[in-house]
Amino acid sequence: MKNWKKWLKRGILALFCLGITGGLAVFGLSSFVKNRTADKIVNETEAAKLDADCILVLGCGVREDGTPSLMLRDRLETGVALYEAGAAPKLLMSGDHGRKDYDEVNLMKDYAMEKGIPSEDIFMDHAGFSTYDSMVRARDIFCAKTVVIVSQEYHLYRALYLAEKLGLEAYGVPALDVNYRGQAYREFREMLARSKDFCTAVIQPQPKFLGEKIPISGNGDLTND
Questions:
Q1: What are the pLDDT digits (tens) for 94-132?
Q2: d(CA 75, CA 217)
Q3: Please, is 12 exposed, middle or buried when counting C-beta atoms within 10 Å of its C-beta (0-12, 13-18, 19+)?
Q4: In Å, how far from its chain's centre is CA 86?
Q5: pLDDT-based confidence at 77, cuts 50/70/90?
Q6: How are strands ordered across the β-sheet holding 54-58?
Q7: Quick count: other Cβ atoms within 10 Å of Cβ 3?
Q8: Which of 87, 81, 80, 147 is nearest to 110 (CA)?
Q9: Does 1 have pLDDT greater than 60?
């Protein structure tokens, strides 16, 4: 009986130590990713001087009524403002369009067109299912070399890190600084995601989908679907 209790205590202690070690590793990798890319986050004026190939707007939630979530709306507003400021001649809307009843990218394009941006200047990446996939496809499908990435600041660090490791010259412009509902949980989840994508950047797996090249220098209407 005593031996059983002794081994149980040792097991609990070992699990506790593993948890502490794992937590420190996650925190350390997350901090490394942030510190590595912090100087790549710029404002709209600085972005306008970069002569980028495209403004890469990363998709996120669409409401059931077909309107953009607050986070997506703020990303789109920032993307449109950057286009109008001359940061790049093209917009690349990258998001999830993996099924007929859920479509981020057409909504994103429609939103930008309603703001007066010509359809041919707006490309859609229908298979931007993850931040990593969006970066790989920007490079390999749309042939971009220099990109201005738009997302909320907490997400930009990871996007910029992945872009750098994939050989893109990338800068990030954060969407409006808003404290969205559930932000504390989102920040915690992002720490885990940074650690995961640190490893992804080392392995560099194939994205879920690739396909034929559609150079960002051409006509965005080729991506209409």
A1: 998 877 778 899 999 999 999 999 999 999 999 999 999
A2: 22
A3: exposed
A4: 22
A5: very high
A6: 122-125, 91-94, 54-58, 146-151, 169-174
A7: 7
A8: 80
A9: no
Query: Locate tokens 């993307």: which residue?
Result: 79
In this predicted structure, the answer to whether residue 24 has a pLDDT above a threshold of 70 is no
Mean predicted confidence (pLDDT) in 134-160: 97
Give residue for tokens 């986050």: 41
Two tokens, residue 93: 């809307």
Tokens 């931007």 sit on residue:
128
Helix (H) or strand (E) holding 139: helix 131-140
- Smallest CA-to-CA distance from 127 within 69, 210, 216, 225 is with 210
Domains and CATH numbers, the chain: 2-223 (3.40.50.620)
| Mean of pLDDT values over 191-202 | 91
pTM of the predicted protein model: 0.89
Tell me, letter by letter, the H, E, C secondary structure of 31-71. Answer: HHHHHHHHHHECCHHHHCCCCCCEEEEECCCECCCCCECHH
